[in-house]
Amino acid sequence: MLPTKNVVLRFPPVASNSSSESGSGSGSRGMDVADQAEETYQLLELPPEILKQVESLKGKEKEAGGGGVFPLTIKGRPSDDAVLCTPTTTFQLRTVGISNSLLVCRTSQSSSASSSSSSSSSKAKAKAKTTPNSVTATSTDGNRPTLELRDTCHQILECVPIAANLERIRTVLRDSAWEGIGSEHSSLRKRKRGSAAQKGEKGTRKGRTWTREQLASVIQASEAELNRGLKDRNVVEVEGRMVLLPPKPLKELLVLLLSLLTIHHTSASTPNVASARTIIDALKDEHDVPPSLCRPVLNLFGKLTIDPEINMNVGEQSAAETEPEWQADVEAMVKQVGNGLLIGLKDRRSDEFVEEWKNEVGEMWADKVDLRLLEGEHLLTPPPATLSSFTSPSPLITHFPLSQLPLNPAQRFADLFLTRPRWRPEEIIPFLRGLTRDGDTKERDKLVQKFVRVVKEKDGTASWYPRRTG
């Protein structure tokens, strides 16, 4: 904050030749002065939503007497555009030029010294006569405070809210992904460099493994967004390493879990609750799935009321009382089974696909099957006239995953309209996820206005066509 009265503004000090030649003490001081003269600053303008959180934290600190800090982290690889992350939100950093120059100043150290001691002030004035570049206040300055000019800024960094780049999670973890039941020992155990275990069936080298901290350092997302992205992409932590569970291998594991849940659920009133120990032991003994993988998967698709590790260190009576239970998220499991069946599917009758889906999840969970669970993963097209004329019309289903669409809005809309020249709003909206922050319909509508031409059909419904350019 600037003083209320006028101040003396000086340029930063410059090390003179005499100070560098007069001894080791003054020489080191000369180097310090030279280092200070090279200071540069980049000013960051905080948006209201960040500033509000920072100020609220300060208020809590005063009440509690603590010294907490609101975390702001800049993330990105050297080739990325830098982003600023709060605990819950991601912002793009954009350089903006300003018409007025901003001067970055700080209190002059020599001025502070002169005000603290009259004797040191006299020495400083004497030295000022022999070294013209000194920043010490002269007699003409009186008692006015002195500020040193450290930098002049002609631009600032502006924070623009954006959607986190979460698709990089799949890109980074794809090469070290889980390979499925029967191959988990070779894909999850630690590998020695140069050993045969690092190679797949075709002799290709397996990718590097990533810890949670390493992954967070390259994913441009806040902590809350990263946690949500890992869950949505079926990533679990196994023995300190992040493991991606691809749709097809995951489908086989979830079919087993649904079957075990059907057999071992605790009661008819809670069909989605079972003993976690029973499930883990069955997967280990009958299907060779290690507990180190089972526990994260159970947490991914449900909730463990008590950590199974507890039972290993307690007596039989105590273990019976603290037997952990698994509360399964059956709908999430059914969804991923359907997603695994979709892989590579093209122009199949949707009713046949739904019937196969129901058979995979089992009779007990068949009522959970719904194509709406797979929004953003498939396309439905009308059947050919030759088929619909003899049987009840059933649309054809084709695998069309959101994860394979570009993150750039212009490219995303271009790809969508190359796939279909005409879309219904309810059909295309699931494929716009990831272009804007979750729930930010205003920004999504701005993109629609930019790239979409809305046409009202004869039946009163609206259709979206690509906006003409040029």
Automatic annotation (TrEMBL):
GO CC annotations, alphabetized: chromatin; chromosome, centromeric region; Ctf18 RFC-like complex
Compositional bias ranges of the Polar residues kind: 130-143
InterPro entries registered for this protein in UniProt: Dcc1 (IPR019128)
Pfam families: Dcc1
Source domain of life: Eukaryota
Gene Ontology terms describing biological process: DNA replication; maintenance of mitotic sister chromatid cohesion
Sequence segments annotated as region (Disordered): 12-32, 109-146, 183-209
Comp. bias intervals (Low complexity): 110-123
Keyword set, alphabetical order: DNA replication
Residues annotated as signal peptide: none
Family: Belongs to the DCC1 family.
Protein name per its UniProtKB record: Sister chromatid cohesion protein DCC1
Organism the protein comes from: Kwoniella heveanensis BCC8398
